[in-house]
Amino acid sequence: FSSHIGWILSMALARLKKGWYTEQTAKEYIPVIEEYLKNLKEQLKHLPIRDMPAAQIKGFPAIEEYTTHILENFDNPEYYMREGKLINFEDVQVPVFGLAGWMDTTRNGVVDHYLGFLKHGNDVVKQGQKLVLGPWGHGAVLNPGSSEMDFGYEASGKDIGVQEMMIDFFDRYVKGIRNGWEERPPVKIFVIGKNIWRDEWEFPPKRAEKLEMYLHSEGAANSLDGDGVLNFQPPDDEPCDSYDYDPKNPVPTLPAMTDHRVVQKRGDVLVYTSPPLEKMIEVTGLPKLILHVS
After folding, report:
1. C-alpha distances in angstroms, 113 versus 108, 116, 126, 208, 286?
2. N or C end of the chain: smaller count of CB under 10 Å?
3. pLDDT exceeds cutoff 80 at 145
């Protein structure tokens, strides 16, 4: 909920400053939105969170309609199930260009749709779709690196010609130009660690080896100083881990490629650490976690 509020306010502020709205509207709402964004972290402590001041801006259609829609469905699990549901792949008659970053919060949805079209789409959709995964966060396709990590210009969508790929894609499926699109590898990924781009004919690669790892502890996996362990040994009869959640002091969500130790020092964070790697390992795919919670 809070991320949606922050997002809509940031988008509205950017458009107000770009002149999308009247001068009077900009004069009225820019100071208000800037003030709310400045202390958004403090507002997240407001209980109930649905009543936080930043969610109550009235008179600005783009904000009011969006926040009202969310607030009306705040306690409706069916709404979230419906909004998060994959599309009906059989109904799509044109190929899809999927573009996301490894650190993008929407990455799983992009990959799930790519795989869904392979399984359920018609031949035109299967043969024409594309998947590009780079070392980016959300909306940072043309900029190299993400957060604290900088992979250089070669990691940017600009360097690999993402815009040119899109033009070729639209030339083929909007203009009908035969440009050999279907003969190109359907997947392009950036391999973090090796820091190279690699074309693939399937995702995850068929040559990938599936590995299963397990969580262990003696019942005190809290923080970096706890006894949480991650290894390849299936667990025996081990105690559960637990922590206390304080809504007045929530655990912050940090970008993927930042140092998480500042958060992992907290007692309300469970940490499971593997032994040091003995050799270089590439993890390409979407790791799956099976977690039992009570």
Report:
1. 8, 5, 11, 20, 13
2. C
3. no
Residue pLDDT, tens place only, 152-171: 888 888 889 999 999 999 99
Amino acid (1-letter code) at residue 241: D
DSSP one-letter string for the chain: -HHHHHHHHHHHHHHHHTTSS-HHHHHHHHHHHHHHHHTHHHHTT-SSGGG-GGG---S-HHHHHHHHHHHHTTT-HHHHHHHTSPP-GGG--S--EEEEETT-TTHHHHHHHHHHHHHHS-HHHHHH-EEEEES--TT-TTSSSBTTB---GGGSHHHHTHHHHHHHHHHHHTS----SGGGS-SEEEEETTTTEEEEESSSS-TTPPP---EEE-SS--BSTTS--EEESSPP-S-PPP-----TTSPPPPPPTTS-THHHHTSTTSB--BPPPPSS-----S---------
Question: In this predicted model, what pLDDT tens digit does every residue of 100-132 receive, in sequence order?
Answer: 988 887 888 899 999 999 999 999 999 999 999
